[in-house]
Amino acid sequence: MKSVLAKSFLYLSVFLLLAACKQESKVLSLEEEAREKIETLKSLMEDAQSKSIDVTREETIIWFSEQFLKFANWDEANPEAIAMAFGYERYYADNKDSLAAKLPDFERQKVIQILDKGIETLNQELAGDIKRRPVNKVDWQNTKAGNNMFVSNGKPSFPYDYFSKTVGQPLTNKDIYNDHLGALYHGGENLYPVDHDRAINSFLLKEDGTFDEELMKELTGIPDTNIGFLIYWSMGIPEWVEKKEPEIRKGRSLFTGFDIDNPVARDLWGKIIRRTGELTKGKKVTELGYIFANEPHWYSEKNHWTYRFKEMNGISSYTLNNFRNWLKNKYNNNIQKLNANWDSSFKSFNGVEIEIPIDTALQGKPIWYDWNRYHMDRSTSWFKFMQDELHAVNPDANTHIKLFPRTFYEDSRSHGMDFEALTELTTMIGHDAKALGSPSIRPHINSDWYKNYAYKWDGMAILHDFLESVGPDKINVNSESHFLSSGMWRDLDSRTSYVRNVYWLATLMGMDANMGWFWARDPDGSPEDRLEGELDFFDPGLGGAYAGSNNMQPHITNEVTQVMYDLNSFSEEIVALRKQPRPLRLFYSETSAINTSDYMTQTGKLYKSLFFEGLSLGFVTKNIIEKQDNSTWNTVVVYKTKYITDAEFNALQSYLNNGGTVIIDSEESLSMNEYGKKRSNKLTAGKGKLMEMKNVDMAEIKKVALEEVADYMPDVIIESNNGKDYKTTISRVVKQEDGTYLVNLLNVGHDTAKIRLSLKSGTPVTIHDLMTENPVDAEFDLASEEVLLLKVK
């Protein structure tokens, strides 16, 4: 009996052991693993809340986790649709089926990744190892445009959202409009030439002069609850207008489907602007302003890529006649003077002709300058017309333009965009600044920057420093931030460190609000209506935009919100850091930009060489010298600037006469007028300091410039060593009222940088990381793409 019992016990033990082993060997699915981690994080959140620890960040992690698990299931159930989406992007097209098959589990793995990080961080706070500042949320109902910033609950606020959110979804849908994805209401982007979804467009006016009230409801029906923005979408033009005015599309551009000089177009848009301005006056959806255009440009040179999209394939009689009148005024009605300048033989200004697109071989010639200068003046005139019409009925309306960054930092100036004039014109700064997180997916695009930097930051940076120099007291709105992807680049497994760094840097440099490109998921996980089925967009970038975007990357989408939470929590510190003066200024001349084939390339090189020296850089122009307080800077550097007008020359001389400092890189700079005629007079020191360099390289210019502003360097000395012969650590320092210093560090290099902090006075320092409230040694490592906000005492 005893042996039988022993044997039975042995069998039972073996059975239980095998069962246990079988249970242990059971592999959880990725979704099951993720859902277990969701429950773990929720349990930690309950514990944290009982201890009055803010869990806003974890709420967002939970929300994105649950959303992307749902999205992964949709993607898994619809492989053909996902493969089609990958197929529309030529970079992915050859592997579309395998990518579609891998995507669901990729998304689940990334959900697990953000949950693991969330669990780890909250455990650290529960253990007392770190202490995070509670999130200061954006008040989506009551944030206001204040003095040079948006204000929410008495503090600076940085609203965030996604441009072109799921068209067709109601603005009250909490799965689309919430703290996680952002909750700005807006007039939408009209990506179909004949679609009218909530954008203010030319189809609102009917041929009989009345308004299409059904279409108008898309605008007037926006709930007056959340703040937002409205956009004038000018891509299409009604058929009845084309019948009335055969030239209406002559001289059109990629995103402006008509001739801006055409009187019929002006009459049409004048009526639409006034009516919509009246109907939306004072509405919360206009708090972030009215956007006058989407990436306006009118490239008018031969062989430009925009030509195949019908941009400036010629000019209308209206544009030509306006040009003739501009020339008549420019040359004081002296046709002989124009003929001598152009080497032409026109009998009168009414007989002047010009071939558009213009041949780039003419760059540097008077005809090139006159056309491109007029071309800028005419587009500024169009936007002034728009603003005047709006302000006639809505005088307090804020306005901006989604300026296309490449038209500033690239060399071509045939596009007709004067960034300074347009920024002066509008009440807010507007643009859609970009960055490249990885080398370009387009083989024809140079990615040499990747040798030195983890991401391409310089285009975004130089744009911000220029626009902030022109409009130092204006709110800065990026209405389509291409930090996550664009037609030039995307990375299906992007780095969260990149996201944090680039959003932080842009905000540090002036960005007050941003709408990212783009959110295209319906709440059930399917792509939004415009991206379903067969796609045929005029916009060359939209069809392939979904593939490899943040819509497939939970870790990236979550990180956008997490960094915006942190920026809003430290908004007062960020504003204090970016309010510093810009003692060192680079002289910018539109004249040289028009006449010189590599002006911006050369300007960009000097800008990058000075960017990592711990000072906010700035620009000056003739207008800035004449309109702004010259005492807000100390030194102006003139670099590779051969052509300037007499008015620009006189402005520099007046600055010197009033005690300013000017460094000129060579005798060639400032030597010619706008028409390439030798300038007889030269700058003199006046009451100021004039330093004319000869036969020196850029390194010497940099050395001399930094010596001139040495007294303006911050009290905190930041030594950075990345093992290279170039710098990658961006630093900003500001002294606070209590005598402590705020120090912000960002590393945009591939390598870890060794940092040493000290004071000019030699006094010992204590340092704390404001993000964790932990002490930091005076010497430490700053990882690639790491961001630190420190308090130095």
UniProtKB/TrEMBL annotation:
Taxonomic superkingdom: Bacteria
InterPro entries: Class_I_gatase-like, GH, Glyco_hydro_42, Glyco_hydro_42_N
Organism expressing this protein natively: Allotamlana fucoidanivorans
Signal sequence interval, chain numbering: 1-19
Name by which UniProt lists this protein: Glycoside hydrolase family 42
A cellular component annotation (GO) from this entry: beta-galactosidase complex
Keyword entries, A-Z: Glycosidase, Hydrolase, Signal
Keyword Secreted: no
Membrane-traversing stretches: none
GO biological process: carbohydrate metabolic process
GO molecular function: beta-galactosidase activity
Organism taxonomic ancestry: Bacteria, Pseudomonadati, Bacteroidota, Flavobacteriia, Flavobacteriales
SUPFAM superfamilies xref list: (Trans)glycosidases (SSF51445)
PANTHER family reported for this sequence: BETA-GALACTOSIDASE GANA
